[in-house]
């Protein structure tokens, strides 16, 4: 069994994947989707969490050699960045969606020196907006952003194009295609629902 299938099985086993074709979910981007992946549930499932965070640390070490710091997206990427950073013995921080309106008015939390080689940690990639905003904020602060590491990607063409246009790259532990294949094989969804979800993604 591949690591990607193991991650997919883990997400399905803890109910992190929701299918609701008759009452679509609204993503942050405004897109109406028949499916939602809630990776926050990984944090409260220790066995799956251990598998996911170890895989995330391995992905970062493999795809982004020379990484000096992990930066989580606010808020979903923060915990995953912290856990992976602990495994890699690296410093971490996170980027707020906007600067604080009090104290030091920080947007970037954690000590970030100019030139630091950073990987952005995101829980999932749909249209890529929040990850790209984080990359841009880090670049403005002088960081050298090596790329994005995420738990899951829907593989939406527009999101992939936006990430490429921003001059960066994303590597995910699990893709939608693998997740729905495993879900169909194990009876979480019907074959017709698998086709429906992939058709929805491919139409975006």
Features:
204 residues; alpha/beta; 6-stranded mixed β-sheet; two-stranded antiparallel sheet; 7 helices; 41% helix; 23% strand; globular
Provide structural commentary.
The protein has 204 residues and is an alpha/beta fold. The protein has 7 helices and 10 strands. It has helices at 3-13, 46-63, 78-88, 129-140, 157-165, 176-185, 191-202; strands spanning 17-19, 25-26, 32-33, 35-37, 69-73, 92-95, 108-109, 117-125, 144-153, 170-175. A 6-stranded mixed β-sheet has the order 7-6-5-8-9-10, with helices on both faces.
- Round the mean pLDDT to the nearest integer and report it: 93
Low-pLDDT residue intervals, each spanning 5 or more residues: none
Helical content (DSSP H or I, runs of 4+): 40-55%
Structural class determined from secondary elements: alpha/beta
Rg is 17 Å
Q: What is the rounded distance between the termini?
A: 30 Å
Q: How many helical stretches?
A: 7
Percent strand equals: 15-25%
> Largest sheet, if any?
6 strands, mixed
| SSE arrangement, N to C | HEEEEHEHEEEHEHEHH
Shape: globular
Main β-sheet, spatial strand arrangement: 7-6-5-8-9-10
Oligomer: single chain
Number of strands: 10
Short description:
This protein is of the alpha/beta class and 204 residues long. Helices cover 41% and strands 23% of the residues. Strand 2 (25-26) and strand 3 form a beta hairpin.
């Amino acid at each position: 069994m591949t690591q990607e299938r193991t991650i997919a099985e883990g997400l399905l086993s803890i109910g992190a994947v929701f299918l609701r074709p008759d009452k679509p979910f609204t993503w942050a981007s405004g897109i109406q989707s028949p499916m939602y992946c809630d990776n926050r549930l990984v944090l409260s499932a220790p066995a799956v969490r251990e598998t996911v965070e170890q895989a995330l640390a391995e992905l970062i070490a493999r795809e982004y050699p020379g990484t000096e710091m992990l930066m989580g997206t606010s808020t979903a990427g923060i915990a995953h960045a912290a856990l992976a950073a602990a495994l890699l013995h690296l410093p971490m921080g996170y980027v707020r969606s906007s600067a604080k309106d009090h104290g030091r008015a920080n947007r970037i939390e954690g000590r970030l020196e100019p030139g630091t080689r950073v990987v952005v940690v995101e829980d999932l990639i749909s249209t890529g907006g929040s990850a790209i905003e984080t990359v841009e904020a880090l670049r403005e602060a002088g960081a050298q952003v090596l790329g994005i590491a995420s738990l899951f990607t829907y593989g939406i063409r527009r999101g992939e194009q936006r990430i490429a246009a921003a001059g960066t790259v994303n590597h995910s532990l699990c893709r939608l295609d693998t997740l729905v294949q495993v879900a169909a094989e194990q009876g979480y969804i019907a074959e017709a629902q698998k086709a429906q979800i992939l058709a929805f993604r491919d139409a975006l």
